[in-house]
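Saturday, quiet lab. Running sequence design on the structure tokens for the scaffold JK sent over.
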């Protein structure tokens, strides 16, 4: 761990991930606010499948805590963008479905994501694009492995 001797914050992966994500989130939030929404609401709409999703599967799929997801789903339901229905095969399961208006907002969110990704693609070589995804996968796997390790004794 010699590289940690005198590392400036901006020289760490953590700093780069956090500050970059904050800028991207701000960009999406500003765009979503023009539709009276938030980035997280758009993210939820993008993750609802055409046949609906069990409410319990959405949180883990998106990395959202149940309480935060419940609040977002309630807001989306109040705005008429989603409906909750009991599963026909198992009445204990609540399915989340997009309404026609929810589909419109989902499409706006999808276009925003695709346009931003296309803008990035034009600035990166295919090799850099692939390296980015490989690097992000490695970071996720390493973070997951590290989270499951026993912390060292102090």
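Result came back. Writing it out in full:
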């Amino acid at each position: 761990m010699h590289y940690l001797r005198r590392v400036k914050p901006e020289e760490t992966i953590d700093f780069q991930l956090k500050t970059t994500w904050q800028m991207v989130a701000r960009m999406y939030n500003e765009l979503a606010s023009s539709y009276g929404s938030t980035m997280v609401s758009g993210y939820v709409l993008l993750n609802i499948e055409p046949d609906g999703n069990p409410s319990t599967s959405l949180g883990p799929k998106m990395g959202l805590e149940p309480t935060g997801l419940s609040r977002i789903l309630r807001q989306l339901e109040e705005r008429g963008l989603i409906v909750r229905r009991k599963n026909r095969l198992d009445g204990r399961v609540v399915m989340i479905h997009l309404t026609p208006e929810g589909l419109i907002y989902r499409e706006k969110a999808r276009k925003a994501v695709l346009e931003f990704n296309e803008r990035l693609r034009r600035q990166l070589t295919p090799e850099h694009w692939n390296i980015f995804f490989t690097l992000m996968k490695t970071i996720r796997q390493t973070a997951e492995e590290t989270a499951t390790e026993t912390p060292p004794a102090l």
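Notes for JK: The mean pLDDT is 91. The two ends are 17 Å apart (CA to CA). Ask whether to fix the surface positions before the next round.
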